[in-house]
Amino acid sequence: MTRTGAQLLVECLLNQEVDMAFGVPGESYLAVLDALHDVSNSFKFVGCRNEGGGSFMAEAYGKLTDKPGVLFVTRGPGATNASIGIHTAMQDSSPMVVFVGQIETSMRGREAFQELDYKAVFGTMAKWVVEIDHADRIPELVTRAFSVATSGRPGPVVVALPEDMLVQQTDAWPRGKVVPVRPHIIPMEVDRVMADLASAKKPVLVVGGGSWHDNGRAALEKFASANDLPVIVSFRGQDLIDNQGPNYIGDAGFGIAPEIRAFLDESDLILAVNVRFGETLTDGYRLFDPATFDKKLIHIHGSEAELNKIFMADTAIMSCPNSAMTALSAKEPIANPPWAERTKIARKAWEKGLTPAPQPGDVDMGEIMAYLREKLPADTIITNGAGNFAIWCGRYLCYGDRGGERGMRLIGPQAGSMGAGVPAAVAAKIIDPTRFVLCFAGDGDFQMTGLELGTALQHGAAPVILVLNNGTYGTIRMHQEREYPGRVSGTDIINPDFTLFAKAYGFHGEKVERTEEFEAAFERACASPTGAVIEIMIDQEGISPRTTISALRQR
User: Residue 478 has what pLDDT?
Assistant: First the structure.
């Protein structure tokens, strides 16, 4: 059957069981939009307000479903707007396939209207970048795109679609669904891990990364529990394990807690599963120094590119985390492990840390977080952007599966991308309207993608968004006060009335100026069928629960 390239592309997506895509319409891929018209009953195109917001939504889709988030953007400005979410997907190991409109092939190299060389633009930002120059190759290259995005270490793939290619006639046929290629641990490697563990005195299990399945998280829980192992998660990986269980002791991210840093420093065996040894996990390579690293290291990762990349592992195993944890959890556990008491002590320290010191000002976020821990449904999806405000939801909520039930999820940008929280919350509500979705946003953070409330309005998504308003770019202000004390420059913000902004989009809007006002406001927000924005007025001194401007000035 003869069809256009655009029609074939849509058939290929359906064969990959894609039923939803995010994006902003553009003239460079009008033929695709036309082809989507014919499958509107089985394919949902979520029109966004900005390509940056759309890319964050696609990235969140990848995190929540472990399937590639699909994004459509137009050429030039559309592609560059989308780059923030593509970069986030790369650093967060989230599967994503981005289809970008492109100029006609006959105009290449003339700096045509909105022309870009996508391989040059996205070459270091994506796992693979390809341009389809003939409609006959659509099935081949789309299949490969989905394979690359989901195999090994997941990540983003960018596929450019020249306008003339999309209207070419072709007799090619779509291919079947891609099964991700993910390596599996072998029995000999399992035995090696258990032998290394048995010889350790102070081991720690460090987990993170993408591509975890429910069975993998359950196996992680089982393995850690059976062996009394302390578990530390990498930056924004708190939902990989039940935080209310006896093995979770905290996270190793920016602003790492002193007790977690000391615990890692004192450990004699690091069992690292699916983590990258980047700046955040290593505290800027001050905790783990590549030049002097002397601990025993077992590194399990699904990509050979991450093994022995920075640190030479004593045991390097290429395996997806789900396979590795399933195999390890099936082994006979270590009897009477000498580190059991150490795990209990670290766990008690984490539990104690759930109650921060009283915060300055009329709003105490510590008290609000204690209330939320009690009131949030067990399967809540939490999203956040980037800023010191995100420490509240990262450190003071409890994530992970609970007794076999789906647990609380955390969808936050490990890449530190401001503006990610609101689009992720909207996407989460579109993906699963039955789950409660709560977004934490800063005042500067919210304004980067707040227009995606329009997407929520259009598609019936109703998250609850907390905007922590302290009138400043808090993280930058904190560093500014440390490096250049008393010389504030460029970090103050004059904000709009966020409650009126919310109401303009049909959301419930409310302002909280005192701690005791929050409970009633939150109940009204949860009762709103159209979603809600609660603006929480935070004193500038309350930038974060650990580091305030006053504390920095005293250093």
Answer: 87
